[in-house]
Amino acid sequence: MITLARIKSHPDVVEAxxxxxxxxxxxxxxxSDWISLKPPFPFQVIxxxxxxxxxxxxxxxxxxxLPILHATSEGQAGRVASNLDEWLGILMAIPYxxxxxxxxxxxxxxxxxxxxxxxEKEYEExxxxxxAARELILSNFAIPKIEDPIQVLHDNVHAxxxxxxxxxxxxxxxxxxxxxxxxxxxxxxxx
Length: 191
Description:
- By secondary structure, the chain is α+β, with helices and mostly antiparallel strands.
- The protein has one domain (4-183).
- Helices cover 36% and strands 13% of the residues.
- It contains 7 helices and 6 strands; from the N terminus they run H-H-E-E-E-E-E-H-H-H-H-H-E.
- The strands form 2 sheets. A 4-stranded antiparallel β-sheet has the order 2-3-4-5. Strands 1-6 form a two-stranded antiparallel ribbon.
- The termini are far apart.
């Protein structure tokens, strides 16, 4: 099992996870008073991301072995992985996972798969440093290769067993969004 302490002992890996993967271990130390889970699981913020969201390990046990909940700064939350190893496997395979959820047509796996064909091309063009960052991370850690990371992500979000509750009592919405690939004018149906 990959531990947070071991990752932190590799500053170059910490930097690569922060950018271009937007999984920032250094942002885990931010104030977590705003986090309230329902049901009230114990939790630990393990990372943050550039827009103010958080990755939260929740439940009893070592944080690396616990499910990971992602909370956005826009009011969505949901489970993204069963544990840290699985999350890193998903992140390495589909770094555009947020877009898969955004263009999922309310959680439809086929829409997520179609979105991935467009996002793969966009990431190749927009993030030329991604392959080198991925190689650096994979050369330092035995991150499991997930055969169908889109399915695993899809299943985890559907299996969300808790959510965040805002200070005013409002419950965060699902990570799945209503948009479909056809809603993006920059994409055509030809992948």
